[in-house]
Amino acid sequence: MLSYATRRVLMLIPVLFGMSLIVFSIIRLIPGDPAQTILGTKATQEAIQSLHHALGLDKPWFVQYVSYLKDLLTGDFGTSIRTNAPISQEIWPHLAATMELSFVAMIIAIFFGINAGIISAWKQNSIFDFTAMVIALIGVSMPVFWLGLLEQWGFSLELHWLPSIGRDNIRNAVNPITHFFLIDTLLQGRFDQFWVVIKHLILPSVALATIPMAIIARMTRSSMLEVMRSDYIRTARAKGQRMFWIVYKHSLKNAFIPILTVIGLQTGLLLGGAILTETIFGWPGIGRYVYNAIQYRDYPVIQSGILVIAFFFVMINLIVDILYAVFDPRIKYR
Amino acid sequence: MLETATNKPPVDPQIEEEKSTPLFSEVWKSFRKNKLALIGALIVIFLILLAFTASFFAPEGINEQKLSMRLQPPSADHWFGTDDFGRDILSRVMYGARISLRVGFIAVMGSIIIGTLLGILAGYYGKVVDMIISRIFDILLAFPSILLAIAIVAILGPSLRNALIAIAIVNVPNFGRLIRSKVLSLKEEEYVVAAKSIGMKDSRILFHHILPNSLAPIIVQGTLSIATAILEAAALGFLGMGAQAPEPEWGRMLSDSREYIQDAPWTVIFPGVAIMLTVLGFNLLGDGLRDALDPRMKH
């Protein structure tokens, strides 16, 4: 097990180097003069020269790359052109906001996705099965940004049930400690704010959860159907065991590996979906941080944001791969 | 050599008949039993027709503005209502089908061509070539696809053409990996080993034997990728990184209309339905083709 995990981690090294090289190249591959593109056509020659120097563009690219890697390893992501603040300081609150949103979205997707899949398989060809699978089919094809807009319109602008943008109430803002607002409000015993944070989380997390929920439901159904046809399930039924236990204990355990695969893949993909959801719901996460940086051509922020998201994406995939080997020992021998 | 090739041994007529049964009819037989796949095919055919006939059937031009008619709800004159410039939304949605299908098809064709080429090189020649190409695929797959597309557009600048290039690049590793694994298994097949042993050129083996036998998964993956490509193009358009105003790209239409959602929800509903139906159509068609062409791919 340990050698499999070590091998898998070692395989990550060239990938991480490649990622850093791609992200490093973003600013250098801009057609024409990157400093001119960032500052606009009205910029003075001095301003352009000074940005050249600040970004290190006046040195050979290899020297630039080595110093970029050195900075990264010491946790220095550079300085934002727009705010002039160190990106490593700015990025954490955004990252925490995205992690909180993604975590809640994944909980929703896993809970509803797995249960819908199980009940669909259990009551195969029933009205529930048909309805759940039609909804899942539509869910898979749903553009997350459109669903987000419809949610805002229905539940916020028309019904006034839930807030449409932000993470908390601006007039009664959460005092950040960890920047995970659900945790911060509980730590401070502010249950009123906790409830406000939950209300802010519902619409964006449901939008973000839709696609993974649909995919998890479809995979759970097909995986469960396969297992429920096997001999040991028939034996369990013949012994007169309660169907609930057969489904949730015996079948789910053996149907879980393909479901886990999908959950892992979808958790990573959530980070990509977050950029759209955060833009719609004004969620101050890392996706919106990158989006705003693009609007202001703040390339150091674009680079760091993309690198951080990709790093988490790769790490989630690594954890999922190692978890497979834990759940299915055959995998590590392949 | 020519003589040997033309002197065919006599063939058992029954075997000949079985062999000549075209693959297409078998695939069609299995495909038409699948109702969802048929619905998908119908949606796709309808969209293609819509795209081709937009200039004949669209009630108005793409950018025909009537400010006196701005934000009109759906009516007999304007089935899908009008937007903030008084433009007919139905017409723009119809023209939008052209853009989305074009982006979907061209981007995916680009990914297929580059991915197939790299996949074949990696799988057939192995060793260092395989190592380099496979690592490039790993690195590209290390980014969430929409994020990599955003990074590429950030370099090239926001436009529909650049969004298309970005989407094509992002999907290359999916096809590359698929073809690589197919080539790896096919190159051990007896007929490929035999072709090698009689001194057949690598290019002939690759393009006449290995590639035709890899077509089924490419078709399936290609159809499903069109759905993803259309969704990604719409997402980039929505973020202002793809099509630019006044192009009637569906994602762009959504982002341009979002501020009117409360007063004129139809401006947001119809472009969204169009994206969803198109993606649904290609997903259903792709799933159906997978079941018919290569049932093993299901899991």
Architecture overview:
The complex is a heterodimer of chains A (334) and B (299). With 334 residues, chain A is mainly α. Chain A has 2 domains: 2-73, no CATH class; 95-327, Orthogonal Bundle (MetI-like fold), CATH 1.10.3720.10. Chain A has helices at residues 2-28, 34-39, 45-55, 61-73, 87-122, 127-140, 144-158, 181-187, 191-228, 231-238, 243-280, 286-295, 299-327. Chain A is globular and about 85 Å long. Chain A starts with a helix and ends in a 7-residue tail after the last helix. The mean pLDDT of chain A is 88. With 299 residues, chain B is mostly helical. Chain B has a single domain (35-297), classed as MetI-like (MetI-like fold, Orthogonal Bundle), CATH 1.10.3720.10. Chain B contains 13 helices and no strands. Chain B has helices at residues 2-6, 13-20, 23-32, 35-57, 89-125, 127-141, 145-156, 160-186, 190-197, 202-213, 215-238, 250-257, 266-293. At the A-B interface, helix 1, helix 6, helix 7, helix 11 and helix 12 of A face helix 6, helix 7, helix 11 and helix 13 of B.
Layout of SSEs?
The complex is a heterodimer of chains A (334) and B (299).
Chain A: H1 2-28, H2 34-39, H3 45-55, H4 61-73, H5 87-122, H6 127-140, H7 144-158, H8 181-187, H9 191-228, H10 231-238, H11 243-280, H12 286-295, H13 299-327
Helix pairs in contact in A: 1-13, 5-6, 5-9, 5-11, 5-12, 6-9, 7-9, 7-11, 8-9, 9-11, 11-12, 11-13, 12-13
Chain B: H1 2-6, H2 13-20, H3 23-32, H4 35-57, H5 89-125, H6 127-141, H7 145-156, H8 160-186, H9 190-197, H10 202-213, H11 215-238, H12 250-257, H13 266-293
Helix pairs in contact in B: 3-13, 4-5, 4-13, 5-6, 5-8, 5-11, 5-13, 6-8, 7-8, 8-11, 9-10, 11-12, 11-13, 12-13
